[in-house]
Design a protein that fits this description.
2 copies of one chain form a homodimer.
Chain A (H helix, E strand, L loop, with lengths): L1 H5 L1 H25 L4 E5 L2 H18 L3 E3 L3 H4 L10 E7 L5 H12 L3 E6 L5 H5 L2 E4 L12 H16 L6 H5 L1 H9 L2 H8 L7 E6 L4 H15 L2 E6 H5 L11 E5 L6 H13 L3 E7 L5 H4 L2 E5 L9 H18 L18
Parallel strand pairs in A: 1-2, 1-3, 3-4, 4-5, 6-7, 6-8, 8-9, 9-10
């Protein structure tokens, strides 16, 4: 897992370089045939990446996005009216049975279909009309890391193809931001020791970092068996915050920019409840230091729009280090296999 | 809370009777102007009801549904292209600031807008073009119960207006099913004692009962401070199941019908992990008894399409009884107020 976490800058640069041509062609198609809605279908870590795609596409293009509920089609056999829709399936292995059913039916229903996968020879790569490959290299660890950040990168490209005003040099800078985030490895490893006996936690994110809250929680569940809840700052206030007692551990993604006001309020509220807070942030948001019990700050100034990839890296490092502190092997979580097939 | 739980059959019958005329008119409009997509916007318990609406509308009408991410508009200021969309906002109080912003912008963007609320005089009732009232009577408990089931009822009516083939006599039978579910009060109260010292749990549901998994977990978090995770059976297998140790408490919604195969597999898997399982089911699915540690069975045969309302009732009763066992007041959860305002 650690090795694959460290490969991310290189994998991201490779994905960007190799998929650019294909995306340019796809953009030309989208310019002619703009979708009325985008549907994203995925499970597990890929579904967390889809959650990021949902915010990114809506924020930067104004096209409404729906995260598919595959069981509507696979369990209930409903036929959905996906005319004028762009249906995007995301799967590391490309072998998620239910996601491939959604893709197949969408294609039959006349939707433009896209598959985002790490495996060029997979069932998904054969089923989708347009295939974009996450060039992360074979992922051996059960806990996905480099394919997640690769999928996030693909969503920047997809948003760009759908009309988002993103500058290529900003995307090309993401691998360097990932490298800077990796420089925190020793610091994060040392911090993880403090949480040796933590058995539950909550992770809070908002907007473009909401997906990271899901992904960080999933990594802690998979590798360290921590019962990790995940919420947006707004949803957390609508009820679940009642579970917070003194010393309750809360992890927060706290970039500067549009979501900061809401995350700042959350940090103040959690301080009032005497919770233990760990905030992931960057040099652009020094104010966090006063509010959180512990701060993980990436030594770089990062615009909020590009925080998602660098911010997940200290979280991945933390999950791997926490598993090690707990004497667990993060590459072989109990009861899990690399490919999960569900219908 | 208990009092309001018991009012549900009456409240449901009242909602159905009083809103029928308005829904018939709305159906005539929808027949002429069929939406290409439905967007549901809500927070907290109302968002759980929206989750049900999402499955119900997609399954019974084939119209794609998106659950809105309000922050896209309220925090990032994006303008979404909601042309040809039906935008439905759901709020008990009708005073959720961010949900009302979504409603207002959708109306400006040319969408047909609907507000579902318990309060005829609320801001939401003024903002929405079409208003449907949940006639639950004033809800005093912070933990919403009767407004949740009332919102589910409204979604049956909304699906019907959008073309779902639902028979009115089946909807008219729902209050009686709710009454039968209430007959379990003593049994469920006795069962709750066993969980006096439970401090974490997972709730699993699928399809039309996925929303109930969210709602049951929320009720346990709000009233009993149990750290309650919630998953669909498929998502749970994609990673989070690693948290399950022997004796880990899992609550499952297990009706007969399309989702049973998947829930049966889940029960078998959890038995293999020596988890403690509590299944909510009905007389139509006697097979559950062999597989779960404890079974709560509604003494009636219920078609899966109509299980959502009766099935949440034993869950509400359980949450209220568990709070009492733990010496807590479910009407006054710590740190919560009845109306939560977020942006």
């Amino acid at each position: 897992m650690l090795e694959e976490i460290r490969q991310q800058p290189e994998a991201l640069a490779r994905t960007l370089a190799s998929e650019m041509k294909r995306i340019e062609k796809f953009k030309a198609l989208m310019d002619r045939r703009k979708p009325r809605m985008v549907v994203l279908a995925a499970r597990g870590t890929s579904d967390n990446a889809a959650q990021f795609g949902r915010y990114l596409i809506e924020i930067t293009t104004g096209i409404p996005v729906s995260l598919a509920a595959p069981s509507v089609q696979t369990v209930y056999g409903a036929k959905l009216n996906y005319k004028d829709a762009l249906v995007v399936a995301i799967s590391q292995s490309g072998e998620s049975t239910d996601i491939n059913v959604v893709l197949e039916q969408a294609r039959k229903a006349g939707a433009v279909t896209v598959g985002i996968t790490n495996e060029a020879g997979s069932a998904m790569a054969k089923l989708a009309e347009h295939v974009f490959l996450v060039r992360a290299g074979r992922e051996k660890s059960v806990a996905a890391t480099k394919t997640y950040s690769g999928q996030l990168m693909m969503f920047y490209l997809l948003a760009w193809a759908l009309g988002a005003k993103l500058r290529m040099e900003d995307l090309e800078n993401i691998p360097a931001l990932a490298q800077t985030a990796l420089s925190l490895e020793m610091e994060v490893t040392a911090l993880a020791e403090r949480y040796r006996f933590m058995n539950h936690a909550v992770v809070v994110g908002r907007g473009l970092n909401y997906a990271n809250a899901f992904e960080f929680a999933l990594k802690m569940m998979e590798t360290s068996y921590v019962i990790a809840e995940r919420f947006s700052a707004a949803d957390f206030l609508h009820g679940p915050i009642a579970i917070v007692e003194p010393d309750f551990p809360a992890f927060l993604f706290a970039p500067s920019g549009p979501t900061w006001k809401s995350m700042e309020e959350m940090l103040l509220r959690l301080r009032g409840l005497k919770a233990e807070t760990v905030a992931i942030t960057d040099r652009r948001n020094p104010g966090v230091a006063k509010l959180a019990t512990r701060v993980i700050s990436i030594p770089e100034r990062i615009p909020e729009l590009f925080t998602a990839i660098p911010y997940i890296i200290p979280a991945q490092l933390f999950a791997a280090a926490l598993a090690a502190e707990k004497g667990l092997d993060p590459d072989k979580p109990r009861t899990l296999a690399k490919i999960t097939r569900t219908l």
